[in-house]
Amino acid sequence: MARRRAGSGHLPPPLPTGEEKTARVRAMFDTIAPRYDLINRIMTFGLDQAWRRNTVAALALPAEARVLDLACGTGDLSRLALRRGYRVVGTDLSAGMLKANGAATPLVEADGSHLPFGDGSFDGLVCGYALRNFTDLAATLAESARVLRPGGRLAVLEVDTPTAPLWRAGYELWFTKAVPALGAALSDREAYRYLPQSVAYLPPTPVLRTMLRDAGFSAVGIRPLAGGLSQMVVATRSGSQ
């Protein structure tokens, strides 16, 4: 149930779904692309860089492995994957993000639920802070499994919500109050008001685990980072190699 805004007599507008969500997400990231990295660093106090390194390392693949950076944005994960000797392709829904991408990799504009790659094209797949932005998460996970070879690895970084009272109080104050103000000052007010609200799109951990298994993954591991400020999801594409 949506929570009533403090001090207001009405509920916040419902989050978009379907084609409306796809259009809004695309337009929003086109708009915030130029300062996306700067605000990420400030928003996470720079912690996201270590989390991204750990996400790429979690693939545990040999050099020259083929890796897809899904919802690659400005290319943070792609650059880290390149440093490990992987062959990387980036794909994103937002043309603005691809324009701002600084990684020296092939880039493809595409929706995560309809990836333009053949079955088993990649050995690994990484994705950073995008699960809640996919319009059809189940279809996107199924596509992720399809483009991975059997035994291929998936590593995803996403926001989370702390469960410890002190962590949660600090999180809510920062993420729901300070981050929108920061976005308004440096980028786009509405986008950074929407991004904290979009956490509501994320399925609970047991549901996400089931969705991954239904999509074709096994050995699914989901663990909180920094007290639950973020989470890392790792899994292996099912099937014999």
Description:
The protein is an alpha/beta fold and 241 residues long. The chain has one domain: 3-Layer(aba) Sandwich (Rossmann fold). Helix content is 42%, strand content 21%. The N and C termini lie far apart (44 Å).
Main sheet overview: 7 strands, mixed
Mean pLDDT: 90
Total of helices: 9
CA-based gyration radius: 17 Å
Q: Please name the fourth-level CATH homologous superfamily.
A: Vaccinia Virus protein VP39
By helix and strand content, what is the structural category?
alpha/beta
- Low-confidence segments: 1-11
| Count of the domains | 1
The percent range for helix content is: 40-55%
- Global morphology: globular
Strand order of the largest sheet: 3-2-1-4-5-7-6
